[in-house]
C-alpha cells in the first residue's frame, strides 16, 4: 500500500457523519421553500479524500462494504446533478482510461475494493466517447480476478450530461 | 327564486327523451344530468342557451326556447364543474382501491379492455392486485396509462362525461425487453433448469401410464430435483431473502407463498403415489404441480420480478446479491452440476423409451 506521508494532497480524510450539518447549511434561511433562490448553496456529497484511483487506498474506512462509484474524470463536469443523483450515498474513485499512466494498477485496485473492502456494488460512470469505455473494461477485469462477486452497473453520460444508458453489466 | 329577463334556454321534451345520455358530455357547463331515466336541466343558471347539446340528441328531444329564466352564471358553472370533477375523482378513487378481480366480475368489459392492453387480469389466477397497482405492476408508459384509465373510467361510469386524467406515471421505464438486475437474473436463470424438468412431466406421465409397473426410481429422481433444486435451492432464496426485502405482507407475495405450499402438497402426494405404485395418484399430482409451476414461473419472470426490480436501489441490489451468494455457499460446490446432470439423465431415459 502506498503511503504518501506528509503530503496533504493524498492524506486520507473521512467526512462522513458531517452529513447533517452540511445539509442544513445548504438550506436558505427561514425554511426550504426558496430552493432555487440565489442564496441556496448545494452541499457537497463528497465524504472522503483522496478520490483519484492512484491515490485511494481500498483499506480506507469509507470503502468498507460501500456502494462505490468509479467515475471517469469528465463525468462530474458533464452531469449537472452529479452530486445529488450519483455521488450521494456512495464512495468514489475517479480515473481517466485514456490519459492516465500506470493503469495496470487500476484493475488491481478494483479487485482489492471487491475482495478486501468487500464493497457492496460498483457503479462505473463514463462519457459517451468510445475511449471512455476502457474504464468499464478495467472494472470488469478487476472483478473477474476477484474472488467475491458483486453487481456492476454501467452508466453512460452524453456530452450534455444526459444519461444515455444505465445497465447491469455482469 | 329570482327570475331574470326572458332569454334563450334549453327545453327537454320528457316524452321524447329516452335517457341515452348522449347530450351530457356535449354540455360544457355540465348542466344536464340523467335523473330517473330522463335528461334534466340541473339548474337554469348553468345553461347558456347555446344549444351545443341539441345536435347530439337522437330523439330530437332538446330545443332552445326563449323564456323567463335565471341568468346564466359563469361563476356558478365553474364551481359546479369543479365540484362535479372532484366528486368524479372521488368515485374513481374508490374503484382504484378495490380489487381488480371484483371490478371485472361486476364489469366484465373492463377485463376485455385490460386484455386489449395485454394485461391478463381475467386469466391471472393471482387476482390479488388492487386496481391502482395495475399500472405500476405492469409498468405501463404514461400515454398508455392515460388511455387505459380513460377507457375503464368510461366503462365504470356510463353516461358520464369522462375526461382523460393526467398520468400518475408510476411506471419507471418504457416497455421492451425485460432487463433484470444481477440477483434477480440469478433467479430467472434458475427457472430455466426448472422449466426443463417441467417439460419432462408430460412424457413422464405417458411413460408411467404405459409401463406395466411404476418406475418409482424415475419418479423419485424428479421429486429429488423438485424438492432440492426447485424448492430448497431456488425457493429458499425467495422466501428467506427476496420476499423479506419486499415484505411478506403484500398480497402478491402471499399468493406466491401459497403457490409454494400448494406445490409442496402436490409433491407429497406424488411421493405417496410412488411408494404405493399408484399410477393415478402420481399422474394427477405431478400434472397439478406442472400446471401450478408453469403459471407461477411465468408470473414471476414477467410481472413480479420486474416489479420488484424496479423498486430496488443500487445498494439493495448489492445486498440481495451478497445474501443469495451466502445462501448458495451453504450448499455443496457441485450442487448445481448435480441437478443439471439429473435433468439430463431423466431427459435421456424418456427419449430412449420413446
Topology:
The complex is a heterodimer of chains A (170) and B (354).
Chain A: E1 13-14, H1 19-25, E2 48-49, E3 67-72, H2 75-78, H3 82-87, E4 91-95, H4 104-115, E5 121-127, H5 134-145, E6 152-157, E7 163-168
Helix pairs in contact in A: 4-5
Chain B: E1 6-12, E2 32-35, E3 38-41, E4 62-68, H1 74-96, H2 100-106, H3 108-116, H4 134-137, H5 142-156, H6 182-198, H7 201-210, H8 216-246, H9 251-276, H10 279-310, H11 314-329, H12 335-353
Antiparallel strand pairs in B: 1-4, 2-3
Helix pairs in contact in B: 2-3, 3-5, 6-8, 6-10, 7-10, 8-9, 8-11, 8-12, 9-10
| Low-confidence regions of chain B | none
Shape of chain B: elongated
Please report the two chains with the greatest interface, counting residues with C-beta closer than 8 angstroms to the partner's C-beta: A-B, 13 and 14 residues
Tally of separate helices of chain A: 5
The percent range for strand residues of chain B is 5-15%
Strand order of the largest sheet of chain A: 4-3-5-6-7
Count of structural domains of chain A:
1
Largest β sheet strand count, sense and barrel closure of chain B = 2 strands, antiparallel
Strand order of the largest sheet of chain B: 1-4
Number of strands of chain A: 7
Low-confidence stretches of chain A: 24-37
Amino acid at each position: 500500500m502506498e503511503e504518501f506521508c506528509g503530503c496533504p494532497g493524498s492524506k486520507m480524510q473521512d467526512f462522513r457523519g458531517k452529513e447533517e450539518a452540511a445539509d442544513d447549511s445548504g438550506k436558505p434561511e427561514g425554511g426550504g421553500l426558496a430552493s432555487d433562490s440565489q442564496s441556496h448553496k448545494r452541499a457537497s456529497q463528497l465524504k472522503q479524500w483522496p478520490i483519484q484511483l492512484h491515490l485511494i487506498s481500498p483499506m480506507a474506512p469509507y470503502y468498507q462494504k460501500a456502494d462505490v462509484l468509479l467515475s471517469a474524470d469528465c463525468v462530474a463536469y458533464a452531469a449537472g446533478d452529479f452530486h445529488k443523483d450519483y455521488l450521494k450515498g456512495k464512495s468514489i474513485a475517479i480515473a481517466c482510461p485514456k490519459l492516465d499512466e500506470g493503469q495496470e494498477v487500476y484493475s488491481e485496485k478494483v479487485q482489492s475494493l471487491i475482495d478486501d473492502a468487500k464493497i457492496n456494488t460498483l457503479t462505473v460512470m463514463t462519457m459517451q466517447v468510445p475511449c471512455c469505455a476502457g474504464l468499464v473494461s478495467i472494472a470488469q477485469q478487476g472483478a473477474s480476478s476477484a474472488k467475491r462477486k458483486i453487481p456492476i452497473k454501467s452508466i453512460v453520460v452524453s456530452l450534455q450530461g444526459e444519461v444515455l444508458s444505465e445497465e447491469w453489466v455482469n | 327564486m329570482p327570475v331574470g329577463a326572458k332569454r334563450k334556454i334549453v327545453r327537454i321534451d320528457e316524452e321524447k327523451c329516452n335517457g341515452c345520455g348522449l347530450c351530457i358530455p356535449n354540455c360544457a357547463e355540465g348542466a344536464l344530468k340523467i335523473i330517473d331515466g330522463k335528461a334534466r336541466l340541473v339548474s337554469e343558471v348553468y345553461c347558456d342557451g347555446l344549444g351545443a347539446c341539441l345536435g347530439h340528441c337522437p330523439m330530437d328531444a332538446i330545443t332552445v326556447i326563449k323564456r323567463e329564466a335565471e341568468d346564466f352564471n359563469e361563476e356558478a358553472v365553474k364551481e359546479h364543474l369543479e365540484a362535479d370533477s372532484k366528486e368524479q375523482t372521488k368515485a374513481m378513487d374508490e374503484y382504484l382501491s378495490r380489487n381488480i378481480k371484483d371490478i371485472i366480475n361486476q364489469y366484465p368489459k373492463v377485463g376485455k379492455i385490460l386484455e386489449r392492453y395485454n394485461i391478463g387480469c381475467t386469466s391471472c389466477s393471482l387476482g390479488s392486485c388492487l386496481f391502482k397497482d395495475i399500472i405500476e405492476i405492469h409498468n405501463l408508459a404514461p400515454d398508455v396509462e392515460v388511455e387505459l384509465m380513460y377507457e375503464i373510467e368510461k366503462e365504470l361510469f356510463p353516461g358520464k362525461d369522462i375526461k382523460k386524467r393526467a398520468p400518475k406515471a408510476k411506471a419507471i421505464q418504457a416497455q421492451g425487453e425485460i432487463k433484470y438486475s444481477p440477483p434477480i437474473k440469478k433467479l430467472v436463470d434458475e427457472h430455466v433448469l426448472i422449466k426443463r424438468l417441467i417439460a419432462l412431466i408430460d412424457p413422464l406421465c405417458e411413460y408411467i401410464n404405459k409401463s406395466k409397473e411404476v418406475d418409482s426410481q424415475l419418479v423419485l429422481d424428479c421429486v429429488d430435483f423438485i424438492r432440492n433444486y426447485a424448492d430448497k435451492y431456488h425457493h429458499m432464496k425467495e422466501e428467506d431473502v427476496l420476499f423479506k426485502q419486499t415484505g411478506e405482507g403484500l398480497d402478491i407475495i402471499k399468493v406466491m407463498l401459497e403457490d409454494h405450499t400448494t406445490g409442496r402438497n402436490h409433491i407429497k402426494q406424488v411421493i405417496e403415489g410412488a411408494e404405493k405404485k399408484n399410477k393415478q395418484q402420481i399422474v394427477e399430482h405431478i400434472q397439478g404441480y406442472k400446471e401450478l409451476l408453469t403459471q407461477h414461473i411465468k408470473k414471476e419472470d414477467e410481472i413480479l420480478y420486474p416489479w420488484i426490480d424496479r423498486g430496488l436501489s443500487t445498494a439493495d441490489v448489492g445486498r440481495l446479491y451478497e445474501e443469495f451468494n451466502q445462501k448458495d455457499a451453504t450448499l455443496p460446490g457441485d450442487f448445481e452440476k448435480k441437478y443439471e446432470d439429473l435433468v439430463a439423465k431423466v431427459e435421456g431415459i424418456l427419449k430412449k423409451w420413446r
